[in-house]
Design brief:
Layout: H1 2-20, H2 25-39, H3 44-58, H4 64-76, H5 82-102, H6 118-128
């Protein structure tokens, strides 16, 4: 039930992100807090993913709201495979590059909503659970 609820929430957040370019803290922070309360102290892989997401945000590779959304979902679903996160980031990044090439847009320097990237991960989580 939880992955389905998160999937529906991610769809709504993705649409909101596409329209406004923002992922609201009012959505991500309660999920992150619940995940931390339920699954603290977490696993080494979960902490490593959290640090990598933080580094990606600091490097400007992803927006803060997108990073918080990923952190929230990962902490709430801690037994999901960390390898799948990287595969999804790779696949969605490749898709974004292909779409930009087809549209003849530059590959860098374009801010685009990123909340939609959580949807393939949640679909995969539904499949394995």
């Amino acid at each position: 039930m939880l992955p389905i609820s998160l999937l529906l929430l991610a769809l709504a957040v993705s649409l909101y992100d596409r329209r406004t370019g923002r992922v609201p803290n009012g959505v991500t922070l309660p999920i992150l807090t619940a995940g931390l309360l339920v699954n603290f102290p977490g696993t080494a892989a979960l902490w490593l993913l959290s640090l990598i997401l933080y580094a990606a945000w600091q490097a400007g590779w992803m927006a803060g709201g997108d990073a918080k959304l990923w952190l929230a979902v990962l902490w709430l679903l801690p037994d999901s495979a960390p390898v799948m996160v990287f595969l999804i980031f790779f696949a969605t990044g490749l898709l974004q590059i292909i779409l930009r090439r087809l549209k003849r847009q530059p590959l860098t320097g374009i801010r685009s909503p990123g909340a939609w990237r959580i949807i393939p991960f949640l679909l995969w989580s539904l499949y394995v659970h």
